[in-house]
Amino acid sequence: MNFIFLVIGLALLVFGANWLVDSASALARKVGLSEFFIGLVIVGFGTSFPELVVSLTGAVQENADVAVGNVLGSNIFNVFLILGATALVRPLKMSRENLRRDIPVLLGATLLVLFFGLGGRISGTSGGILTRVEGAVLLCVFAIYILYCLSCGDSREETGEKPEISTVFAVVMIIPGLVALIGGGELFVDSAVNIARSAGISDKFISVTILAAGTSLPELVTNIAAAVKGRGEMALGNIIGSNVFNLLLILGCSSLITPLSFANVSAVDAIALAASALLIFVMRGRRAQGVLLLTCYIIYSVFLIIEL
């Protein structure tokens, strides 16, 4: 049964990704917004929903390790593995706005979170806590960024013939894709964990492999589908949007519920997170640099296993 559920989960992931990409593209044409912006806001937020649920649940249960580890691990996975794999399928074109606005915002958000979370540990003034006030700052930065994107004329594009559907219907059509993605991801991960345990694989190894990647499965499948369909802007927007949501919205909301400790965030984790944001700017979506990102993920995974 676990193998059957694994196949069903994978099928839902593929169906959901294809449905989501097609529906989001139709919405972009209908309302005149760029596919990058749709990927940034709608697809990025939708595929980050599993991280939001996991982190908020961890914060409510006062388990900071879950909230912080989930976000940092997901962002590293998103760039090193997902963006690397996407670049191998189809090189991603980055616009001038991406290089001047979106990627610097992601890099700035990454450094801001690391400064808030690790600054006290480095200076010796605290044990490394993301406070409620700092969480409120993250949420304010997030709101400013989204409002700025909405106000930018360059977020709109001429999309040619518009679909003969209402805007409300175009938005509603996105929901089945998101539901299939999230549900399929959960079913796939649960089945994979059960199979791994039945094969005698340790829980620690499962936690840094299957579970760590599990909440990012929607981003992975959506990006591959977008790349295959030639929707590179949406794929890039999905990763940048997911990572910005994770850092600013999810950590911001979680730290408002309870201050989050970064005590278990190692130097390797911090370096990998900072490098993941920096490499998006450097790589410019080329295939050869996609290989570099995948290599970085393998090296980081080896460090995680050694730390166990």
Question: Would you give an account of this structure?
Answer:
With 308 residues, the chain is mainly alpha-helical. Helices cover 81% and strands 1% of the residues. The chain has helices spanning 2-31, 35-47, 49-60, 64-89, 96-123, 132-151, 167-172, 174-198, 203-214, 217-228, 232-257, 267-283, 287-307, and strands at 129-130, 260-261. The chain has a two-stranded antiparallel sheet. Helix 8 crosses helix 10 (217-228). It is globular and about 55 Å long. The two termini are 31 Å apart.
Q: Helix amount, in percent? A: over 70%
Which strand-content bin applies to the residues? Answer: under 5%
> What is the number of helical segments per DSSP (H or I, 4+ residues)?
13
Number of strands: 2
Radius of gyration: 19 Å
**Order of helix and strand elements from N to C terminus:** HHHHHEHHHHHHEHH
Shape: globular
Question: Mean pLDDT, as a whole number?
Answer: 80
Q: Spans with pLDDT under 50 lasting ≥5 residues?
A: none
